[in-house]
Specification:
Blueprint: E1 14-21, E2 27-31, E3 37-38, H1 44-57, H2 90-100, H3 103-113, H4 115-119, H5 121-124, E4 131-132, E5 149-151, H6 153-164, H7 171-181, E6 210-218, E7 221-229, E8 234-242, H8 251-270
Antiparallel strand pairs: 1-2, 1-8, 3-5, 4-5, 6-7, 7-8
Amino acid sequence: MMAIELPALDERVTWSIRVVDAATGAVLGEHTPDQQCETASIGKIFLLIEVARRLADGSLSAEQIVPIPVEHVVEDSGLLYRMQDQTVSVYDAALLVGAFSDNLATNALIALCGLDEVRAVAPALGYADTALHDYIRSERTPDLPWTPSYGTAAELADVMRRLGAGEVISPEVSALVLTWLAANADTSMVADALLLDPLAHVEAEYQDMVLRHKTGSTSFARIDTGHLSGPAATVAYAVAANWKGSADDLRAPVIDAMRAIGEQLRAHVTGRDRADAKL
């Protein structure tokens, strides 16, 4: 039996799930981990890796102001599009992406780095079925790339494990990406069960857990991938759910299952059994 017991999964949903021990890489729980899903904003992790790499090698500076190309102005997720002053540095744009999955900051950073260069990050790390694929678009017409990002749980859990181990390009690059992801304010999915303060969990918080994660949402998708440590264990995880084409909006059963997985992760990393984990 796997250490992480998955809940009943709605069969109308396409799932990709994997949880691994972050120290050993051993699989603790999984369900169709090689199933490729549309992953909404998750691919922004690879943009952050590219930005961190350029900051580390000096080809970008943290204080450099990021131009916002008119053709890539977008709204929805994030804060920058609502700000009166949209002057933002490279470092702070990346922080907005990590904290609020900021679409405008994302597009500005992609334009700064180059879409082809950002697309190449995941393959360069050895991933065949996971990548950032396109800018964030207000409307995705048939002539545009089919999704902003795609991925499998197997590969997403692995990149989070490698970030936690300092193995993505370098310890400096990995640490910088995790610094930005530490600010993620979206704890509505797997992380909801961890009971962390959504706006203040950079340091060890409830039950001594430390979370670094990225989420993605669309009208037909929910994805949460992260690195979670506690006093008893550390895990890397990815849970992706797609229900594109369904006649029903299946976010309710998807979120219920994600929270149930989160309960399992909390019990595992804190060393509490499931009854004690309720305390």
